[in-house]
Design a protein that fits this description.
2 copies of one chain form a homodimer.
Chain A (H helix, E strand, L loop, with lengths): L1 H19 L11 H18 L3 E5 L6 E6 L7 E7 L19 E3 L2 E3 L7 H16 L6 E7 L9 H7 L8 E4 L11 E3 L1 E2 L1 E10 L5 E2 H4 L6 H9 L23 H8 L5 H8 L12 H6 L3 E10 L8 E2 L2 E10 L5 H14 L6 E10 L2 E2 L5 H14 L4 E3 L6 H10 L3 E3 L15 E3 H17 L1
Parallel strand pairs in A: 3-6, 3-7, 7-18, 8-17
Antiparallel strand pairs in A: 1-2, 2-6, 4-5, 5-19, 9-16, 10-14, 10-15, 11-13, 12-14
Chain lengths: 448, 448
């Protein structure tokens, strides 16, 4: 595959860039037409790569791209999952280049989606192309690319239910996660679930002059802050009653195994520019993001946020709150617990609304499967070192649903690195990882 | 004056609307050219109304308009203060009409600045015009209109120091406050001072994926909320140490006198759409806004505030905080107390910045002066009922400075009403108050 990459590199860039230039932001209604454009371009790329068929399917939300090549009904079938939607690029002023105009410098591609997930799904299309064109393919391969992963995949579960036969497969291959580092390849064997909510606190029915009313009326910003301050206790545990009830505590042995993954706390703090880490008492940093649930405020707004001084006592304050969940914590149970608690701590002089935006469960992947072993062997060959099993802190909500609906286990062969700053300004993807990923995937097919 | 208003009403509207259409927002740099346009238009209106001279003067910031008519150097001189700058119109989606296109309906003018302060300063120009054209004027009259009141008048004190002789006067007449109600006219005999600050909490040096880092790193939004939650104690007193040290407690008699002003708590709550009021323990609602200091969060922002779900652990969180101060609490003393306290409650894993935006002191006006008595008599004649002395919760920072620099006491003949919702969307000014104000001002000249 190495040689094939060298021979086709420029064409690969052109093809990937054509995807990256489309601002397929699923969170924004204004980008609807871009979702269709991006899906069509993907179907075209699948056909060019050698799929027998590939098409854009409508769903309740953004379109789903499905394509396949059936070699032999009796052969093993690999289902490749990816998503073509991206996170909003904001804050725009922090980008050093145009978020939707890919550039290559410092051995990486810089663009929104360069890694998450256009860059990573592209590796699969090209590894497939290589297998087809060199006559190496001996599996059936199916591709499913959705356009709503970043908003919690609201439409894909129903679409999967309606297309169960089409999607039959032995394993679901996913590249949408990270490795521990370039030098420490790893395979994700579990992800966190997610409950994402938007809350609104309303005080007076209109914005007021803070001089005329200040001191006499509940200020919804202050109230919201006081409520958010009650979401964690002094040990940095989430204060929502019942939140930890179903969390499975790992055994001493499992924790020791996880602790073997190399991790340098000083490097970590330096990378983030912080003096101290903060998290749930009694757990290490790796455990806090890997095996423990958490709650974060992802956004807050209210009152005057423009330039200069405006003296206003606002009518409303808002926040976006995400809870990362671990296996056995079900989003459909945690979300109502949060709602109940949040409403219970609201003072009587304000009105509180809690709106669910997105939810999904965490999952675990057994490391004893044939697919895991094949992936491990492939990565070891490319990176020259055996990958360690790790736990990702992020969420791909739909994969837990896929397990339930289709009965297919995911295999997370992710080639991202923390330095790629996905979801943030200046997202990038190292060429070394892009090409290393392609090679590893091609070898996976060989060993699976 | 009533008849004069009837005869000239349409021209009055045209003239006032020409001011209102200029978006003279002092908080925004992009509106600089509008400040000059608005100042020029005001100077023109003063000349047309009968001033001997009127001109736009440069200052360190936005231009100052000064005009005068000297009848007799031995006569009493009235200095009229007003401001032509306005608050930002945001949130724009709450306006029912264009914020800078005045419309008349329901017996009121609706526009940003309709009351604060273009509508109110316009009453003075027209009352002056009436006095001049009907040969009634027997005072010298000077006008000073500034363009930075809404941002704390940073340039006017220096300008006043440089033009002390020009500004010599016996009293400073100001219409930039409210009456208790249309049926209960009042004269403001004290205002609160202001310390306005912007705070910033920085956690990690970049926005992070909340899945990969959530639970392991201090979230600056959560930290800011936890800090804001520590700004008030359980009795709703401001928790900044030393905040109340210089606050003068009113005597039982003074409190009883203030309590005589009619106030209906149920009506108040109904107007605001709230079930309960909230404020410093041991004081009434009127006292909380009139004679007690307070602290409000006027704005907060951080992380993703757009549509949909973005899972980010942001690098920064911000808030705008205003403290309303009562006489003897000096802004230059309170601001450092706040800064010290805010920095002291910051956890070590974040970085905190406190920036002063604006500051000014409160003041009191004696109700025994000739000017107060003349104003009281004038208002009583127009409204058919004697005005009560009241305490305004707002701040006109520069008037305390004027007392100190020029030795001139302000007299606050304000004709605004709470229903005008100044500083908020859909600001308005009742025609009845606009014209009642003109009549009262004309009579003030007669009785002073």
């Amino acid at each position: 595959m190495k040689q094939y990459i060298q021979q086709n590199k420029e064409r690969f860039f052109e093809e990937l860039f054509s995807l990256l230039r489309i601002p397929s932001i699923s969170a924004k209604a204004e980008n609807k037409p871009d979702m269709q454009r991006c899906a069509s371009r993907l179907a075209q790329l699948l056909l060019e790569a050698g799929a027998d068929e590939a098409a854009v399917y409508p769903s309740k939300g953004n379109p789903v791209v499905f394509g396949q090549k059936i070699i032999d009904p009796a052969a093993k079938t690999v289902l490749v999952y990816g998503h073509y939607d991206v996170q909003p690029p904001e804050p725009l002023d922090k980008w050093l280049t145009d978020p939707f105009e890919p550039v290559i410098h410092d051995d990486a591609i810089w663009c929104r989606g360069a890694n998450d997930d256009k860059g990573q799904l592209f590796m699969h299309i090209k590894a497939f192309e290589f297998m087809v064109r060199t006559g190496r393919l001996h599996h059936n391969v199916k591709f499913i690319f959705e356009g709503e992963e970043e908003i919690g995949s609201p439409s894909l579960p129903d679409w999967m239910r309606e297309h169960k036969d089409l999607l039959k497969a032995d394993i679901c291959l996913v590249s949408d996660t990270t490795m521990i580092s370039e030098k420490v390849p790893s395979i994700n064997c579990g992800m966190r679930g997610l409950s994402y909510l938007e809350v609104k606190v309303t005080g007076p029915n209109k914005d007021l002059h803070s001089g005329h009313y200040g001191g006499a009326v509940a200020n919804p910003i202050t109230v919201l802050c006081e409520m958010i301050a009650q979401l964690h206790d002094a040990d940095q545990r989430v204060a929502v009653p019942g939140f930890y009830d179903k969390v499975v505590e790992l055994s001493k042995e499992d924790r020791e195994l996880l602790a073997k993954a190399p991790f340098d706390l000083d490097e970590y703090k330096q990378f983030l520019g912080i003096d101290e880490v903060r998290g749930e008492k009694g757990y290490t940093t790796m455990e806090r993001t890997g095996i423990r649930p958490c709650l974060d405020v992802c956004g807050i707004w209210g009152g005057y946020t423009g330039e200069g001084a405006k003296t206003v006592l606002p009518s409303e304050a808002h926040a976006k709150i995400s809870m990362r969940l671990v296996p056995n914590q079900l989003s459909r149970e945690i979300t109502p617990l949060f709602r109940k608690y949040f409403e219970s701590i609201a003072p009587k002089d304000v009105h509180v609304e809690v709106k669910e935006c997105e939810g999904g469960d965490g999952f675990l992947i057994p490391i004893s499967s044939d697919a895991y072993k094949a992936a491990s062997r492939a990565i070891a060959e490319v990176y020259g070192i055996e990958p360690v099993p790790s736990r990702g802190g992020g969420s791909i909500a739909v994969l837990a649903e896929m397990q339930q609906i289709l009965g297919i286990d995911p295999l997370l062969m992710g080639f991202g690195l923390e330095r790629d700053t996905i979801h943030s300004p200046n997202e990038s993807y190292l060429l070394k990882q892009l090409f290393g990923g392609m090679e590893s995937i091609a070898l996976f097919y060989q060993y699976y």
